Amino acid sequence: xxxxxxxxxxxxxxxxxxxxxxxxSRLTDxxxxxxxxxxxxxxxxxxxxxxxxxxxxxxxxxxxxxS
Length: 67
Fold this sequence. Notes:
By secondary structure, the chain is mostly helical. The chain has a domain at 21-51. The chain has two helices and no strands. The chain has helices at 8-49, 56-66. The protein is elongated. It starts with 7 loop residues before the first helix and ends with a helix.
C-alpha cells in the first residue's frame, strides 16, 4: 500500500517508536505543529498557482509595443 516493503505493520512500528520518543503529551503538540505546517505549505502552493494580475500600466505598455 505504501510502496514496496512498507505496509501497515511497518507503519504501526514507526508510530509506536514515535510515541515512545515524544510521549503521549507531546505527541498532540507535534501533530498540531505538523498540521499547521502542512496547511501553510498548501496555502503557499495555491498562492503560487493563482495567476497574478498585472497592473494596468504594464498591460498598456505591452499593448503599445505590440502595435
